[in-house]
């Protein structure tokens, strides 16, 4: 699934669209054509659209708003002794136990006390130990961290 960006051009409904971000990172808009959207903030994309529209729209009252209406790029990976390994996507943030439930739960070979959450960071990957047995028993609910986009959950 692709992210969807809502582009609204005030008083010009023919130019207002819900644009899907394609795999190459671009969106298509009437008159303007393709614009790079991936990695751009809504305000930066709005500026690009306003600049491109000036070639076609002479009305100065044509104001543009850009909002992210659907996010589908929140992805994480579950590897190791889970019932179903692989990459998963969600439309909302999930906890460790919710992410693992999407993967079918731990396999019978998993070591619940030695799970590792690997989180990318600018200093290099961070390894965060997770004790699933303690989460499941209710002894350590604070270890049920929120999975961030790009995280990898490893079940040894």
Could you please describe the fold and organization of this structure?
By secondary structure, the protein is an alpha+beta fold. It folds into 2 domains: 4-70, wza like fold; 75-155, Outer membrane lipoprotein wza domain like (Outer membrane lipoprotein wza fold like), CATH 3.10.560. Helix content is 16%, strand content 34%. It contains 3 helices and 12 strands, in the order ββββαββββαββαββ. Strands 7-6-12-9-10 form a 5-stranded mixed sheet, with helices on one face. A 3-stranded antiparallel sheet has the order 2-1-5, with helices on one face. Strands 3-4 form a two-stranded antiparallel sheet. A hairpin with a 6-residue loop joins strand 9 (115-119) and strand 10 (126-130).
Tags for this entry?
156 residues; alpha+beta; wza like fold; Outer membrane lipoprotein wza fold like; 2 domains; 5-stranded mixed sheet; 3 helices
Please outline the helices and strands.
Layout: E1 4-9, E2 17-20, E3 26-29, E4 33-36, H1 42-53, E5 64-70, E6 75-80, E7 86-89, E8 94-95, H2 96-102, E9 115-119, E10 126-130, H3 132-137, E11 146-147, E12 152-155
Parallel strand pairs: 6-12
Antiparallel strand pairs: 1-2, 1-5, 3-4, 6-7, 8-11, 9-10, 9-12
């Amino acid at each position: 699934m692709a992210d969807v960006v809502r582009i609204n051009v005030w008083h010009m409904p023919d130019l207002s669209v819900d644009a899907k971000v394609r795999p190459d990172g671009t969106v298509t808009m009437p008159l303007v054509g393709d614009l790079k959207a991936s990695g751009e903030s809504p305000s930066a994309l709005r500026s690009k659209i306003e600049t491109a529209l000036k070639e076609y729209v002479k009305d100065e009252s044509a104001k543009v708003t850009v909002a992210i209406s659907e996010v589908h790029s929140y992805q994480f990976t579950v590897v190791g002794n889970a019932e179903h390994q692989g990459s998963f996507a969600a439309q909302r943030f999930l906890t460790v136990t919710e992410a693992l439930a999407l993967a079918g739960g731990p396999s019978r070979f998993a070591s619940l006390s030695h799970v590792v959450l690997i989180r990318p960071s600018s200093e290099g990957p961070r390894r965060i130990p997770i004790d699933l047995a303690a989460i499941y028993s209710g002894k350590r609910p604070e270890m049920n961290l929120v999975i961030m986009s790009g995280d990898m959950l490893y079940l040894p």
